[in-house]
Amino acid sequence: MHTQSAISLTSMRQKHGHTFTVINRTLAALVGGYLATASCAALLALILPMSTADSTLLAMMLSFALWASLAIYAFAAKSGTRVWILLATLIAISLVGVGAAQ
Amino acid sequence: MKESFFRTMTWLHTWTGLLVCWLLMLIFFAGTLSYYRYEINLWMKPELHTNVLQQYQDLDLAQTLVQGQTYLADTAPGAKTWMLRLPTHRLPFVGYAWMDAPKEGERRGKFHEHIVTTEGEMISDVRATKGGHFFYRLHFDLHYLPVPLARYLVGFATMFMLLAIITGIVIHKRIFKDFFALRLKKGPRSWLDSHTLSSVLALPYHLMITYTGLITLMFMYMPSAMEATYDGNRKALQKEITPVSTPAKPSGTPGELVSLSTILPSVLEQAEGKPIRDIRIQNPLDANSQIQVVLRNDSRVADHEYQLLYQGTSGEFIGKVGDSPSSMGKAYDTMIGLHAGRFAEPTLRFALFLSGVLGCVMIASGTLLWSKKLRQKQQKQIDQGARPSLGLYITESLNLGVIAGLPIAAASYLWANRLLSADYAGRYDAEINLFFTGLGVTLLLAFLGRINWRGALLTGGLMWLGIPVLNALTSSENLITNIVKGQWFIAWIDLLALMVGGLMLLAASYCKRKIDNKVGNKHKTKVQDAPTTNSVKAAESAQAIKEHV
Amino acid sequence: MVSILLPLTALNLSAFVIFALSSFSTYRELLGRAPTENTGKLLKIAAALLLTASLWLCVASKSWGLGLLLWFGNMTMTALLVALLLTLRDELKRKKPKRR
C-alpha cells in the first residue's frame, strides 16, 4: 500500500512535469516559433540582395520552412530553456537588424 | 523532450496529426473534389447538358464575337463589364456574361451569364447552384464561419500537417523498404500499412500541396515581411509582381464600342498562337471603354494571365500584360499554379485527384490506426464490462462521422441539386445546408452509436451509385448518351460517382467480412460502443448479438 | 501528351515491379526461391536506372516544371498499381484454401 502510493506520487509528479514540458514546448513552437519566423522574414525581406518585391516574396515563401524547423527544434531540443534562448536571440537579432535596415 | 529524438518525433507526429485530423480530412476532401469543380458545376446545371459543349478550334471566332457584342448591347447595356467567354479545357462552352456596377457595400457587382448553344440559341434560365465552387470555397473558407477566422483555422491545420509530414519522414526509418506491403485484415498492422503506403507513394504530392497551400494565403499568415518593406500595403507589392492593367474609369459621356471583329486580326497576331480565353470590355458603352483580351497559358504551370489591351472606341492597341517581371513573382505564380492545378489536362488531373484521395486515405488511416491502438489498450477492461474511455469514444465517433460522413454529405449535395425544384427560390443555400445536414446526421448517429461502419459505408455507397441514375432521370442526357456524344466533361462526374460508390461498397463488404470472420469471438464487437443511456446500450447489445448470429 | 504517357508508364511500372522484387520476401514469394544479396542489389540499381530514364524522358519532352510534376504523378500512380496488385494477389491466395 505504502509503496504503491509512493509510486503513484512520483508518477504524478512526472506527469505534472510532463504536462509543463508539453505546454512549454508547444508555446515555444507555436507562439515563439511564429514570432521568431515573422521577425526573421521581415529582416530577410529587407536585406536579401535583390529587388524589394523579390526579397519580400522570397522571405514569405521560405518563412514556413523556417517556422517548421523551429517548431521541430522546440520539441527535439534537450531543454526548454535552450529553445527559448534560441528564439529570443533570433527575435532580438532580427528586430535590431530590421531597425538598422529601415 | 522524450528520452530520444526518435521517440520525440513519434510523439510529435501522433499529436500534430491527431489534433487537426478531422478538420484536415474536410480540407483534403473538399480540395480533392475541387480538381473537378468545373465538371461538378456543369453536372449540377442539367439545363446545359445538351448542345452546349464546344471546342475552341471548331469555333467561328469573328462570328461569335460579333454575335456576343450585339447580344450584350441588347441585353445588358448598363453593365459595368461585359465578358465573352470562349471554350477552354476547363469551361468548354461559349458564354456571354456581364457584371453589374457594384451596389453599395459590395466589392463586386452581380455576375450574370447566358450560355450559347451549338445551334446559336441562348440559354438564360439555369438553376441557381453553387456547384463545384462550393467545394472550392469549403476547402479554405469552410462555411458558416467568418472568412478570416476560417482561413486562420485552415492555415493552422495546414501548418500542423506540414509538421506531421516532416516528422513522419523522420520517424519512418525505412522509407524505401517494404512500402509495397499492404497486409489486410491484420488489425492495427493493416492500418499502419495503408498509412505508410498512402503517405510514401504520394509523398512529393503531400509536401507540395501542403507547402503551396500555406503559400496561397501567405499574405495573411506571414505579413511581417510585407510590413517591413511595403508598410503592409499588399496592393503596392502586387503591382510590382503582377503587372495588371489599370481599370479604365468611366468618363460619363457615351461612346460607341468598336466592332470586336475589327480588332481580331491584331489580336490573333499579338497572341502568337495562344488561344483566347475571354474578352472583357470595361465600361462598354462609355467613351472611355477598354477591351482586355485574356489569353490562355495552358502549357505552363504558373497561374498567370496574359492580356492584350485595346482602347474601346478606337480599337487602338494599348499594350500587353505578360509574365511577372520579378523572378520570385514567377516562382510565386508557379507555386499557386501547382496548388490549384489549373493547367492539368485530364490524365494529369486524374493523377492529382488520386493523389488527393491518397491524402484522404493517409489522414483517415492515421487516425484509425490511433483509435485501434487505443482500443487495443483498453480491450481487456472493455471485455470485462468497462466503458471505453471518453477519448476513445470521441475519437471513434468522430472517425466514423467524418470519414464516412463526408462522402455521404457530398452525395446529399448532389442529390439535393436534382431533387430540389429548379425554380425554388432558396435552393442555392438549401443545397449547401443539405451537405452539412448529411455530415451532421452521420456525426450525430455515430456519437449516439446508432450507426456502424458497415451501415454508413453502405448508405454512402448506394447514394453515390444512385447518382448516374438520378442524372439519367433528371437531365436531358444520361451517362450513355454523354459518352456516345463524347461529352466526357459531364459523363466524368457519373463515372466518378460509380467509382466512389463502388469503393465504398467494397469497404462496406470488407467490414462485413470482418464481422463474419469473428463469429464466435464474443469479445470483439464491431458495433460502436457509446456510453449513452442504458436503453441505448441494451438496444446496441441486442443489435450486436443479431449481427453475430 | 499521350505520346510520352505510354513509354513513361511502361518505364515506371517496370521500375516498380523490379523494385518490389528487390525485397527479399516478395522475391521469394513471386519467384519461389530466395534471391542472393547481389541479386537484390542489382535489382535496386536497375529500378533506379529505369526511374532516371523516365525522369529524363519527362524533362526532355516537357519543361522542368511540368516534367517533374508528370514524373512524380506517374510514379505515384504506377507504384500504387504495383502495391494494389501485390495486395490483390495476397488476398486471392488467402481465399484459395477456404474454397477447397
TrEMBL record, chain A:
Q: Which UniProt keywords apply?
A: Membrane, Transmembrane, Transmembrane helix
Q: Where, by residue number, does the polypeptide cross the bilayer? A: 22-50, 56-76, 83-101
Q: Which domain of life is it from?
A: Bacteria
This one is known as DUF3649 domain-containing protein
Its taxonomic placement starts with:
Bacteria, Pseudomonadati, Pseudomonadota, Gammaproteobacteria, Alteromonadales
UniProtKB/TrEMBL annotation, chain B:
Looking up Pfam families in the UniProt record yields: PepSY_TM
Swiss-Prot/TrEMBL keywords: Membrane, Transmembrane, Transmembrane helix
* Lineage: superkingdom: Bacteria
What the entry lists under InterPro entries is as follows: PepSY-ass_TM
Transmembrane stretches, start-end: 12-36, 152-176, 197-221, 350-370, 390-416, 428-448, 455-474, 486-508
Tell me the protein's name. PepSY domain-containing protein
Classification from the root reads: Bacteria, Pseudomonadati, Pseudomonadota, Gammaproteobacteria, Alteromonadales
TrEMBL record, chain C:
| UniProt keywords, alphabetically | Membrane, Transmembrane, Transmembrane helix
Entry's InterPro entries?
A: DUF3325
Where would you find the membrane-spanning parts of this chain? Answer: 6-30, 42-62, 68-88
Specify the protein name: DUF3325 domain-containing protein
**Species for this entry:** Shewanella corallii
Cite the source lineage.
Answer: Bacteria, Pseudomonadati, Pseudomonadota, Gammaproteobacteria, Alteromonadales
